[in-house]
């Protein structure tokens, strides 16, 4: 969801920088790369330790929630995301949402402007809230849990993951799935080579490459 469907990766950066700036610290892109796909408690522990903040992970999470309540209602859709979601729904292709966000965070991002679109996902897995997701990305847990919710009981090799992060790609591959990656342009191209397919935007995706019905326009 974050950075692939919604522009929330940028908003996360703003939120975290707002907090760490109070202590003269900088939330770098390199640190962000390490954290993308992490569960909330993992992320808070790494940031507070790495930047030597005078906050416990729990205190950091309290501060982030204040930031999120202000920033997340401003979310916007990433290019090509709505077209792809509606296409797959119209063609009755089973789809699910697998996000490392908590359920509370999801509602902050979606409820104001995007409820109808996200209602097209019949199955949702919230990595920071679901007790079945024991480990965050790059471990495969979230995608295996997400796939288990499909009544079709698909084999893992029949599942296609869309990701923007290196950790997410590794998680999908570890689950035995194919992965389409839409990375931040600042990501080193060497780190994208594991993905099944790398795109500059979801607008470039051609469903027929994976045996899916092509776009009609």
UniProtKB/TrEMBL annotation:
Keyword Cell inner membrane included in the entry's annotation: no
Names of the cofactor(s): Mg(2+)
Keywords: Hydrolase, Magnesium, Metal-binding
Molecular-function GO term, any one: metal ion binding
Keyword Ribonucleoprotein part of the UniProt annotation: no
Catalysis: reaction(s): psi-UMP + H2O = pseudouridine + phosphate
Entry EC no(s): 3.1.3.96
One Pfam family here: HAD_2
Gene3D superfamilies membership: HAD superfamily/HAD-like, Putative phosphatase, domain 2
UniProt cross-references to PANTHER family, sorted A to Z: 2-DEOXYGLUCOSE-6-PHOSPHATE PHOSPHATASE 2 (PTHR18901), PSEUDOURIDINE-5'-PHOSPHATASE (PTHR18901:SF38)
NCBIfam families according to UniProt: HAD-SF-IA-v3
Family of this protein: Belongs to the HAD-like hydrolase superfamily. CbbY/CbbZ/Gph/YieH family.
Entry protein name: pseudouridine 5'-phosphatase
Source organism of this protein record: Danaus plexippus plexippus
